[in-house]
Amino acid sequence: PYIPLMVSHWVLNLLSRFFIEVHIGREAVGIYSASFNLVDQSIGILYLGMMLAFYPALVRLWEKSRAEGERYLTRGLKIFGFIAIPAGFGIVSVGDLIIRFLASRDFIPNRGLLILFTLSILFVGLNQYLSKPFELEKKTHIIMGMFMASAGMNLVLILPLLKSFGLNGAALSSCLSLFFLSLMLFGFGRKWLHYEFPVVLYLKIIFSSLIMTGFIILVRHWIPQPILQLIAAMTGGSLFYFFACYKMRVLRELFAGK
């Protein structure tokens, strides 16, 4: 079931770029692709790396005890949020600087496009975890059906949103369809694994990430050189994030494994 899923995902990406080229132009495709690739590769490598270690351990614990599997899936969601959410805030804050260094000013997107792409990739990473109950129960055909429903929603929305909001509309279409997929995976997946979604912890992480983002905004205002802005944002921002997490007891909850 994963083969048609991956093929349809590839086709959808090509269709998005095709619609953008037809309705806006080739330059817009370049901006769209540069922004998407930056976010996808920055956050994607994080959740894929975590999944390599997470999934084998989840299978082993689930085969031993369903309750242990449920607790471990919740813990995996906590660690994913702790790493991926601040990374998303960071990309939104300094993504234009990175694109300027790697490409040129011509490919720098608006902030809204980076936000929508970041949300989309965070949903993609989240769905890697939310799909695990289906994989453990060997119900991957249900995942394919849900993905097809999400893809159909994307196809229905992309043209009207693209015409109304330009590049941001195309990104919004993808974001909404992935959010819809997350809701389906969570709602139906808890039929087999009754894990807890760490809503309160995620809110604490988002607040800590906002503090980090505030520091980055000040750095970009105070420091004129782009390269120094990037270095200061990455180092200082990380320190502010970890300090905020420490004060809000996020680290205690993560390491305690609760």
Beta-strand content bin: under 5%
Overall shape: it is flat
**Which residue ranges are poorly predicted, with pLDDT under 50 across at least 5 consecutive positions?**
none
Summarize model confidence as the mean pLDDT. Answer: 89
**Number of H/I helices:** 10
How does this structure look, described?
With 258 residues, the chain is an all-alpha fold. 87% of the residues lie in helices and 0% in strands. The chain has helices at residues 2-23, 26-64, 66-102, 111-130, 132-136, 140-165, 167-189, 199-222, 226-247, 250-256. The radius of gyration is 19 Å and the shape is flat. The protein starts with a helix and ends with a helix.
Using brief descriptors, characterize the structure shown.
mainly alpha; 10 helices; about 85% helix
SSE topology sketch:
Layout: H1 2-23, H2 26-64, H3 66-102, H4 111-130, H5 132-136, H6 140-165, H7 167-189, H8 199-222, H9 226-247, H10 250-256
Concise summary:
This protein is mainly alpha-helical and 258 residues long.
